[in-house]
Design goal:
Layout (H helix, E strand, L loop, with lengths): L2 H27 L3 E6 L1 E5 L2 E10 L2 E4 L5 E6 L6 E2 L4 E5 L2 H37 L4 H33 L2 E3 L4 E3 L9 E2 L7 E4 L4 E8 H11 L14 E5 L10 E6 L9 E8 L11 E7 L4 E7 L4 E3 L2 E7 L5 E5 L1 E6 L2 E6 L6 E5 L11 E4 L6
Parallel strand pairs: 1-24
Antiparallel strand pairs: 1-23, 2-17, 3-12, 3-16, 4-11, 5-7, 5-10, 6-9, 7-8, 9-11, 12-15, 13-14, 13-16, 14-15, 17-22, 18-19, 19-20, 19-23, 21-22
Helix pairs in contact: 2-3
Length: about 375
């Protein structure tokens, strides 16, 4: 190829390379695009979550108070009963006969008392006439007093017989739901027989949970009350229960008991919250999530969780300053609120943090920032 052609070809290549190099330099100089969101303040109701356990306010093992054969079982396994409903009927024949005998004893004692009274009055009249010694009147008086005591004993025996007869009807001491029956008609039972059935009051119900020393201190500091006032103060926090399936009950509970000491083994203090349990979804012995809310909201600084990063030093965000430069800012975080995170320290309201494009930037570089959710024009 002639030299002139070679020279022309080289010049052509150089001319074409100049705009290509300029475009590459312009691309390198262009600031990376990122999406930002401003830190903002919102009124948040502070809360703490614990594991609780349902605990029946009333639970009793039903037992027999007298001996006898079970004449009838008037309930079924798991039945819901009202207070004073008859659950079991023990045969009454022997107890009715005993009551009749005690009533007969009373009639005899009353007759003896009447006779002793007549004798005492007669001896008193004879003594006044001088026809009988004083000792006979005293003996008659003693006999009358003995007859009065016999009447009282007979009356007490009747009350005891009536009481035992009433115990042949085994009744529910309160409204609730029965467990599984452990006795059948025809069985011989007595006060030493194990529980016939367990009765549990379903509503209202307690939920037992525990707070650590720090959690207790935080709650008391927030409410500005003493531990003992948690059950009485108007500012006592509401307690919410969440079932294992994630359902949060509409009815809040109220703290009704706070123990008077921290457990030395667990470092926690026991509490009871009372729930009306109208829906009867809280069951005795069931585990559930308990959430305590502060009585009033508190302003908190929030940023999207997408902005949060972590390294060996802790949590940090990338802040875009007024010169569109990226700064690394370590922060102290609090609770999660939906898709946001509470920032306790390290940021000020209005400062912008990067939520998209984090992988394209580093501290100290300039960026082209747009608000998250906005499209580029």
């Amino acid at each position: 190829m002639p030299l002139t052609h070679i020279v022309r070809f080289c010049l052509l290549v150089c001319v074409m390379a100049i705009p290509l190099q300029a475009a590459n330099a312009q691309e390198e100089a262009a600031a990376p695009k990122v999406s930002i969101a401003a830190a903002y303040t919102k009124e948040i109701i502070d809360e703490a979550t614990f594991i609780g356990e349902g605990e029946a306010i009333d639970q009793v093992d039903i037992v027999a108070r007298v001996s006898g054969f079970v004449e009838a079982v008037l309930v079924e396994d798991g039945a819901i009963v009202e207070k004073n409903d008859i659950l079991f009927q023990i045969e009454t024949d022997s107890y009715s006969a005993t009551l009749a005998a005690r009533q007969a004893d009373l009639a005899k004692a009353q007759a003896d008392l009447e006779l002793a009274g007549i004798e005492y009055r007669r001896k008193s009249e004879l003594l006044e006439r001088g026809s009988a010694p004083e000792s006979e009147r005293d003996i008659a008086r003693a006999n009358e007093l003995g007859a009065e005591a016999a009447v009282q004993a007979a009356q007490a025996a009747i009350r005891q017989a009536q009481l035992e007869l009433s115990y042949t009807e085994i009744r529910a001491p309160f409204s609730g739901r029965l467990g599984r029956l452990s006795v059948s008609a025809g069985e011989l039972i007595s006060p030493s027989t194990p529980s016939l059935v367990t009765l549990v009051r379903e509503a209202p119900i307690y939920v037992r949970f525990s707070l650590s020393e720090k959690q207790l201190a935080d709650v008391l500091e927030e409410l500005e009350i003493a531990a003992g006032e948690l059950t009485t103060a108007d500012s006592s926090p509401a307690v919410h229960a969440t079932l294992p399936n994630g359902t949060t009950l509409d009815e809040p509970g109220k703290v009704v008991f706070v123990d008077n000491r921290i457990s030395p083994t667990t470092g926690t203090i026991a509490m009871l919250a009372r729930f009306e349990n109208t829906s009867k979804q809280i069951i005795d012995g069931a585990f559930l999530q308990v959430r305590i809310e502060a009585p009033a909201p508190t302003p908190r600084l929030l940023v999207p969780q997408a902005a949060l990063q972590r390294d060996q030093r802790g949590d940090f965000v990338l802040v875009v300053n007024s010169q569109q430069m990226v700064e690394q800012r370590y922060i102290e975080t609090g609770d999660q609120v939906g898709t946001e995170i509470v920032v306790n320290e390290g940021l000020r309201e209005g400062e912008s943090v990067i939520v998209e494009g984090l992988q394209r930037v580093r501290p100290g570089v300039q960026v082209d920032a747009i608000l998250a959710g906005q499209q580029e024009g």
